[in-house]
Amino acid sequence: MTTPRHPNFLASKLAQEMRLALVVLAVLALVPVAVSSPYWLGVLIVSMYFAMLSMGWNLLAGYTGQFSLAPAAFAMLGGYTTALLAWHWKVPLWIGLPMALVVPGLIGLVLGRIVLRLSGPYVALTTLSFAEIVRLVIYNSIDFTRGDQGLNVPALIDSRVGNYYLFVGALTVITVGVFLLLRAPTGRFLLAIRDDEIGAASRGIDVVRAKTVAFFISCAICGIAGGLYGTFAQLVSPELGLIAQTGIVIAMVVIGGMGTLVGPLIGAVLVYVASELLRDAGNVQMIVFALLVIVFARFFREGLWGLARQAIARRRSATRTAASGV
After folding, report:
1. For residues 171, 111, 242 and 233, what is the CA-based torsion angle, rounded to 10 degrees?
2. Which residues of 165-182 are buried (b: 16+ CB within 10 A; e: fewer)?
3. Quick one: which of 28, 65, 16 has its CA closest to 308?
4. What angle do CA 153, 158, 159 make, to 5 degrees?
């Protein structure tokens, strides 16, 4: 059981992480000034797509303690919601994209009411089963979804730089939204459930309701990320929902810092850019990331951000000690 910490400490920690998250987002916003390569701008756009998935998954796993294996499946559902509306009924994107948030969110709401009454590995197993069922249904519904051929999606913005700033803006809104949620009473309930679910229930917190809200928001975030990715790639396919995609998301969060606001941002960008640099090495990149996940999960629970915070704290302590000795 994790020892509860004082609310003021948690609020201060969250505010510090939010400030750093805004710095990371500002740096991302300035990248096109120095980088003009369409390829690398595309790589960073996809890394921001994964950052959105990581933010959604981290809200559920890092802050609520519920280990879902379906973030990629909900991104796929969001992408297909927008694509199917445009393909079959010519629904414009200004309607289709919001539906990419609503439909996965509502599906997550129903699934959450069922799944989140379970505990331990059963949540992970149930969400994994759901993810595979949804992917196989889409894969085999050839007349409706075109199966593994995928569906073409209209482009929302034709410019690569325009798409880049669209993703920066969406990622910023999601980050600020998660920050505000965590500062609200609901966020404190989620942290209490993560630290001690039985204790939270004994204090009068409706545990299932709070976890369901987190599940709904997490699924909605993944859904809108999938919808935006579809308009960028102009194609959605069942590959979006592969369990390997979820594995990448988990690796990003664990390496960046699980249960932190800035960790998913750092982890997503670093891991995806590194995977592109290691692409010529083949499957070696997956072995490297798997080993990193094991090491960080075992020894550095707060990931790269936790290591950086500890280094800063040690330096400040050394500075104070030196100043007091003068």
Report:
1. -40
2. ebbbebbbebbeebbebb
3. 16
4. 140
Structure tokens at 51: 């950052």
For the residues of 157-221, what is the DSSP string, one character each? ---HHHHHHHHHHHHHHHHHHHHHHHHSHHHHHHHHHHH-HHHHHHTT--HHHHHHHHHHHHHHH
The pair of three-digit structure tokens given for residue 76, joined into one six-digit string: 């796929």
> Using CB atoms within 10 A of its CB, is residue 277 exposed (0-12), middle (13-18) or buried (19+)?
exposed
Are 194 and 64 in contact by the 8 Å Cβ rule? The answer is yes
Q: What are the boundaries of each domain within the chain? A: 7-243
pLDDT band at 325; cut points 50, 70, 90: low
The mean of the pLDDT values for the chain is 92
The pLDDT tens digits for 243-275 are: 999 999 999 999 999 999 999 999 999 999 999
Alpha helices per DSSP H over 68-156: 71-89, 93-115, 121-140, 142-145
What are the tens digits of pLDDT across the range 40-76? 999 999 999 999 999 999 999 999 999 999 999 999 9
Instruction: State which amino acid sits at residue 12.
Output: S
Rounded to whole angstroms, the Cα distance separating 10 from 264 reads: 18
Cα separations (Å) of 33 from 38, 59, 232? Answer: 13, 32, 20
Cα gap 134→145, rounded to integer Å? 12
